[in-house]
Amino acid sequence: MTTTPLKRGLAPMHPGALLREDVLPALDRPVSDIAKLLKVSRQTLHAILREEAPVTPAMALRLGKLCGNGPDLWVNLQARYDLARLATELEDELATIPTLNAA
């Protein structure tokens, strides 16, 4: 049985970390060139790389096209990151919500 990173205790990474650490070095191009290819501003791309901005569905489409891996990877990374962050943030509140079972 496969477990998710949340259940294994691993924090999901922000997609900007994958871009910064793995993708951009492999592409061997300056961030400004990548931003131009993506048709976004350098500031927009830098905010993602600094993990200050999310990868939106539009950006996921752009990254997926540029990298040839489609948008799903980028959308899923962002969703997992957001869920993990919010699960921690809302932990106490969620503990007070009952789980209902269908009759």
UniProtKB/TrEMBL annotation:
Keywords: DNA-binding. It comes from the Bacteria. InterPro entries: Lambda_DNA-bd_dom_sf (IPR010982), Toxin_antidote_HigA (IPR013430). Gene3D superfamilies: lambda repressor-like DNA-binding domains. PANTHER family: ANTITOXIN HIGA-1 (PTHR36924). This is HigA family addiction module antidote protein. It comes from Azospirillum aestuarii.
